[in-house]
């Protein structure tokens, strides 16, 4: 069966990264093309596996492929293997297809960069690591891909590390992710202590025999890991700074790889969260906070890429909220993840196209009127904009509206709090994404004299057009023609339809109304109105949003400065206590005695004679006293 060759999914891009990194300058001429071809090769393998799975009965679509005996340690025996099932294949197709399009786009975007061979090696490493993460059959092997994604993101965010600010941004992302990694490591430790295994199938089977407190602890620690990787509250501060990397990196991180990993981890661990209601509630709360947080921050960003980064944070918040809703929301979280991968990748590549035509500028206050000179970029970006707004029949309408509907399902206060949060978030999203679209492509031209906007080459615009088609049609296909919820049933189980607390037509109408209000408001202010080239000071909330709601300052107050103070205190105790009173005090005493004894060795014979005479007299006096 073709599934036996699923290991090629990881092996092909990993081979590309190895050849380009070890081959050095010898691969400069053909390395980028080789990396792109191997990424497409991985997609073709994934497509073949997917087609073979379509021909099988739903209950026979999961395949475990054992690769080798990895960690034989007494009673604990972890094998390295792949789990090819509907959930992992949904990610495989997204990663390889969107990732390969980004490779093609990078051929044009990085054409004149002297280090493009190294860049493509890192892209291949990124894709290979993410594929290993979603195909792993155990938490331990998932963690290998998890760390590989972290390494690749650090290398790519800091690709232009000759700029100290970019190197700092890469380090910030790396450190924030390491905090989340502690949660995943501790979760695996508890699994080993409780279940004696970290294999997905074995853990899922043993969940019923564990206590709720233990499962809650595991769930909360898994959530911590997901927050770090998916930039969710309170570990979200790195995502905006990650825009320091080349724009194709931003598209890859935000659409198909890194930030989706946390959502995958939660959904893959659904048996644990279903048995730990408190941990599940924590997932919903984190998602709700983050979707509002990202939306508010996005309203005040003038940097085009950072506005899109805030949008990603918010949209991943929607996915986390859905994943925390339990069986009613798992499939919708993955549905929105897949559609978001297309329209967000398209908009990031569109941002790169704007930068390409505007001399690498990112300040939207210096744009305006680009629709007349960059028509392909305008149309393709516009389709992504309509998709994220949730305008029917574009992709976001089918996926994000399902999350809003699911958030209104339940009893008591939860559907009202989480449902209204999701609904209000849709209105804010419409405002800040429309603000971005109108400030960039409409209104008066605010270009500087040294800028000559122009359309990007075909290597960049063709991937944008393909992603734009996905932004327009993919949601409709996955909702009606080939329902993704049905595809995921063998993994996530069948869920009966639950009626929300408000009728579905009322929810759909309310969502469209708040979206329309947000978009019209943005048009009045930024499309038709005059946009100053220098941002006004604004209200206190605006200033806070520009500063990411002071998350860096909060982190410094709660984490950085207490750590620095503790370190300085320990150093002071070591220097003044251990070294001062202990080792230092003894050394000073010996030095004082030595200095006193040294005064007797002055080199004068008369002094020595007097000392000898004194000694003889003292000796004779002692004898006289004794006798």
Q: Which consecutive residue ranges, at least 5 long each, have pLDDT under 50?
A: none
Helix fraction by DSSP (H/I, runs of at least 4): over 70%
Give the helices and strands as they follow along the chain: HHEEHHHHHHHHHHHHHHHHHHHHHH
Please state how the strands of the largest beta sheet are arranged side by side: 1-2
**Major sheet details:** 2 strands, antiparallel
Structural class designation: mainly alpha
Multimeric organization: single chain
Our estimate of the beta-strand percent is under 5%
Number of helices: 24
Mean pLDDT: 91
Using the CA coordinates, give the radius of gyration. Answer: 31 Å
Termini gap: 112 Å
Q: Give the strand tally.
A: 2
Which word captures the global form?
globular
Features:
mainly alpha; 24 helices; globular; NADH dehydrogenase subunit L; membrane; transmembrane helix; NADH dehydrogenase activity; transmembrane
Plain-language structure description:
This protein has 627 residues and is mainly α. Among the domains are: 298-546, no CATH class; 555-626, no CATH class. 72% of the residues lie in helices and 3% in strands. It contains 24 helices and 2 strands. The chain has helices at residues 8-23, 31-54, 86-109, 116-135, 139-157, 164-195, 200-206, 212-229, 238-241, 247-255, 261-268, 270-274, 277-298, 304-324, 330-357, 375-389, 395-407, 414-441, 458-481, 484-492, 504-527, 540-546, 551-600, 605-626; strands spanning 63-73, 76-84. It has a two-stranded antiparallel sheet. Helix 13 runs antiparallel to helix 14, helix 15 (330-357) packs antiparallel against helix 19 and helix 16 runs parallel beside helix 17. The protein is globular, with a radius of gyration of 31 Å. It starts with 7 loop residues before the first helix and ends with a helix. InterPro entries: NADHpl_OxRdtase_5_subgr (IPR018393), ND/Mrp_TM (IPR001750), NU5C-like (IPR003945), Proton_antipo_N (IPR001516). It comes from Janibacter indicus. One of its GO terms (molecular function) is NADH dehydrogenase activity. Residues 70-120 form the NADH-Ubiquinone oxidoreductase (complex I) chain 5 N-terminal domain. The chain crosses the membrane at residues 6-26, 33-54, 87-107, 119-136, 142-161, 182-203, 209-228, 249-267, 279-300, 307-325, 331-355, 376-396, 416-438, 458-484, 504-526, 608-626.
